[in-house]
Amino acid sequence: MSENYWERVIGNAKQNLYLKDLKEAALSSFKDESDNYKQKLVYNLLETVRNNDQKEFFYILIKAINKPKGNFKELWKKLQNNYDIMPEETFVNFAYSIILGIMATY
Amino acid sequence: MKSIQGEVSQYNENMQNQLAFTGNWFIDAGILGFVNLMEEVYGWDLNEIVVKPIDTEKFYYAYFIYYIKKTSFDWINRQDLKNVKEDKKLKFDVTKKNLFTKIEKILKSNSKNKNVKEQIMEINNSIKEAIKDSFEEYKDCLKKSFSNNKETILGKIDKIGIIINEPFFQNLNFIHNEKNKKGKEADVLNAFGRMVYNYEIKKKLTKNALDKTISKYLFSEEEFTNITYCKIQTLNELNKLVDRPSIIFLLSFPLAFNRVFDKYVLFYTNNLESCYYINKNIKIGVEKAKDKSSNAIFKITWHSIIDYITEQRSIFSLENMYLIEHKNIKQQNLIDVEYIGIPKLQASIILDDTIRENLNNSIQFRSNNFKNRFCWLLEEFIKGKPLYPIILNQINLALNDEKKPSYYSSLYSLIIEANILYFRSENEKSNNNLFSENYFNNYKGLVQGIKEDVRNTSYYASLIRGISNDKDKKARIARDLISALKAKDKNLFLNILLKNLNESKELASNDSFNRWLMEKIVENDVCFEIYGLILVMNLVRG
Questions:
Q1: Exposed (0-12), middle (13-18) or buried (19+): which is B454, by Cβ within 10 Å?
Q2: End-to-end CA distance of chain A
């Protein structure tokens, strides 16, 4: 288990990603959505992760959080800082942390 | 004052003269074998044997008496009748029992006024007569169990000289089938005499060489003729090292081993007393469990060792213990020889009672068609082999309805392995020194961690059983998950798991379960498959 999961160096600055934080951000973002909607969303996201289709995963996710009235600010911030083309192993952990976060809100 | 000094120096001298281990397992095993022999034949206890000077003549006598008794008992035990009614078989069993009593009597009634050789020959002849007399009435229905099933015990007794059989020394002159024939008893005894008194082991090359002729664990002088570079060691040189007639220990070597199921096993630690008591406990335990399964016998063996060591609170002994085992001797070669040392990490973990109890189990990991389908977890652990593949196979068998999994043994095995892997990966990351903090507190933190993880994981992972009420559906999910584990595909594993979990809203949103999944599977880049298998195991339980 690694506490600091994803570290990027941009210029002189280091950016860290903690998977638990990512999951928490997803959890607080989706808590007000309906269960049926979230189940369908999770299903679609799972399909994209299975195929390691990062582009499609982020497309579906961003489309889902593109709601100015929701509580998505925290998740926006996390994605803004960490969105990148990732190695498959990192992407898998990144994606499932978000999915588990959404599932925790059922 | 002087007298006290005298007593002290006398005491020190006595201590120095005591029979003790040398630190070389090979010689030490012989010393233990010698102690066992003296105890068996003369009834002396350990304290007596270590202080007594070694008397070669007493050894000579004891050696033959021990082997004549052992061999004749073994031979009689394996006798059976063919094509007879049940009542005759019962009568035959009584005859065998009476014969044992007769042999015991013969062994006690030796003529003290004769010399050692004459005494041995007298006992040997009397036992042969006793066997002939007892089995004469069964001569037509005795099963042929000698010389490749071509001869009965009566035929064998009629041809052999001294009743002695020790596969370990088959290529030594004195017990070779060609030499040990009827009428040649005196020659056999003389050849043995030349060995113990003159160190004449063989006639070719170096006659007193320490090589394969005297022990299967050594190389043969004939095969290894690189004498210019590597002069072969002789028994005289070995004597200087052990300060005693080393041939006696070399000849006693096989007596140190206990037969445990289908193996000859010796537990060696560098202290004669500990080694003696542990091996004795094993012998007693194995005798008690004669009719039980191999599994029960293995458990008893390990109980004997660990119980003694935990009693002594001696982690040092455990760390310095070696398990030496061999299966059989075929064509003068040892089969399946293994030397197993117990590393400090493993020693610290198995000293914990709960962990040890759970690992001390033999589990089936191959289907019923295989002969070697059981695996003893504790042994594998001590050998440092991974337990995960064994448990994976076991769960696979359970899915095919071949065997119920041993839940707690499997759980402990997996969690121990996971914690060791974490521990190693953390150490690698922090570039710790060889002697980390854990090294000095005997990995106590690790043991605590394992127990806590077992407590938490056994609860959280069991929640997965709520994924469905349908047993068949759970088995289907388990099958899918196990194929992902076999492929070591974390993505596929999580995908299958979460897709099924997505249909069970209550479980998916269970905070404890969700957090556990996050920590043990998603965030875990060291050993996610171990915790994955624990989930599968719970699904298999239904």
A1: buried
A2: 26
Q: What is the DSSP letter of B54?
A: P
Instruction: State whether A1 and B526 contact (CB < 8 Å).
Output: yes
Q: What is the pTM of this model?
A: 0.70
Q: Using only C-alpha atoms, what is the Rg of chain B?
A: 29
Two tokens at B388?
Answer: 């995960």
Contact criterion met (CB < 8 Å) for A39 and B524: no
Mean pLDDT of chain B: 84
B442 near B435, Cβ under 8 Å?
no
pLDDT confidence tier of residue A2, bands split at 50, 70 and 90: very low
CB contact (8 A) between residue A46 and residue B517: no
Q: What is chain A's length?
A: 106
On whether the CB atoms of residues B445 and B345 are closer than 8 A, the answer is no
Q: How many CB pairs under 8 A join A and B?
A: 70
State which H helix or E strand residue B334 sits in. strand B333-335
The residue behind tokens 């339980």 is B541
Q: Which of B523, B524, B527 to mutate to test the interface with A (most CBs of A within 10 A)?
A: B523
CB contact under 8 A, A103 and B525: no
In whole angstroms, what is the distance from residue B493 CA to residue B488 CA?
8
Please state, in angstroms and rounded to a whole number, the distance separating the CA atoms of residues B419 and B423.
6
For B318, half-sphere exposure in the C-beta direction (CA atoms, 13 angstrom radius) is 26
CA distance B407 to chain A (A): 25
Listed by start position, the domains of chain A span 5-103
Helices (H), ranges, A31-87: 35-50, 54-65, 73-82
Radius of gyration (C-alpha) of chain A in whole angstroms: 13
Maximum Cα–Cα distance across chain A: 44
* B508 interaction partners in chain A (CB closer than 8 Å): 103-104, 106
Ranking A82-91, B187-196, B222-231, B456-465 by mean pLDDT, the lowest is: B222-231
ipTM of the complex: 0.91
CB contact set of A17 (below 8 Å; sequence gap of 6+): A4, A5, A6, A7, A8, A78, A81, A82, A94
Residue B134, both tokens = 């007892």
Q: What is the DSSP letter of B512?
A: H
Cβ distance of A106 and B519 shorter than 8 Å: no
